[in-house]
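Encoded backbone
================
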Amino acid sequence: MARQGSRDRGLFERPKGSGIWWIRYYDDLGRERREKVGPKGLARRLYEKRKTEVREARYFPPDRARRVLAHEIVEDYRTWSEESGRVISDCRPAWERVLQRFGDVSAEALKPTDIEQWTLQLSKTLSASSVNHHLAILSAAYNRAQKRGSVSINPMHVVSRLKENNVRVRCLSEEEESRLVEAVPEWLRPLLLVALHTGMRKSELFKLRWTDVDLATRTILVRQAKSGEGRRLPMSNEARQAFKALWEKRRKVVALKDSSPETRSGYVFAAPKGGFMHAFDRYWYLALRSAEIPDFHFHDLRHTFASRLAMKGVDLYRVQTLMGHKTPEMTQRYAHLSPDTLREAVERLDAEPAASRG
C-alpha cells in the first residue's frame, strides 16, 4: 500500500505483485468506496477523477443511481401537505429559508451538525418557536421521504429543538385593534374578528369549512386541533355576525339561493379567488406595518382572546377549555390578568364577623 501523503495515496495493489490496482476514496456521505481498476496509471487518473466528482457534488456511485437533493424532498412534502390540507407552517418565508440553506445539498449528505449550525444562525434573529417551526418543516420532509424510500437516513432524529419561552403574552390593545381592522383588506376583516372572538389558531381558521359552522346553534367545530382532538366552540354575537355576512356574500357569489352541499363544503376563509389561503402573510405583515403595530404575531390574537376573558373574570378552567389547552399549566400564564378575582377572595376575610375570628 502506498505511503500516506505520497503521490499514490488512495491506490493499492491486490494481490500484491499482480499488477492489478484498486482505488480507495470517500464519497460525499463519508462512506469508504473501493473500485478495481487495472493498470496503475489508469487507477491514478480514476482516483483523481473520483475526488473531483465528490468535491464538486457530481459523484453518483452505482448503488445510488441518482442523488436526491434536499429541495426535492422539501418540495414534495410541501405539495403533499397542501393537497392533503395538512399545514405545519403557514409562513412562506420559513419554507424559503429551508430551501435556500439546504436546497442543493444531497438529502443523505446533510449532517446533524450542519442543521445545528443553521439553528444557531437562525436563533440570532428569530425566536425559539420560530426556529423550531423551521426544524419541523425539515423533519416532516425527511419523515415522508423515508416512508417513500427516497432517503435511508434522517439527520433530524438527533437534532434537538430549542427550548421555547412560552411566557410571552403580547395582547392587542383596543386602540391597536381599531388601527389593525382599518389596515387589513376588507375581505380579511371577518377572519381578524373571528380570531379575536374565538381564540382559534391560524391553522384552525384556515382549515375551517362551512360544514363546521352552525349559525343556528352558534357553534364551531374545530376538527383538526393542535392537540389532535377536535373541540366545539360557542360563537359570540360579533363572531356570528361575521360568519353570517360571509355566508351571505358567498351565496351571492355562487348565485345560489339555498345552502347546497357544494356551497357548504368550501373554506370559510378562502383566498380572494377561492381555494386555500396560502399568501396570507403578504397581507398580514403589510397591515401591521401600516397600522404601526410592532412586535405582534397572528398567534397573539389568540393571546388577546384569552387575556380579555381572564380580565373579565372568566375562570381559568373555562379559558383552558375554550383555548383547547391540554394542561392547566398552559393557561396559567393568564392568571395574573384577573387580579379582581383574587382580590375578591381575600376580601372575604374582611366580611367575616370579628367574633368568629376570636
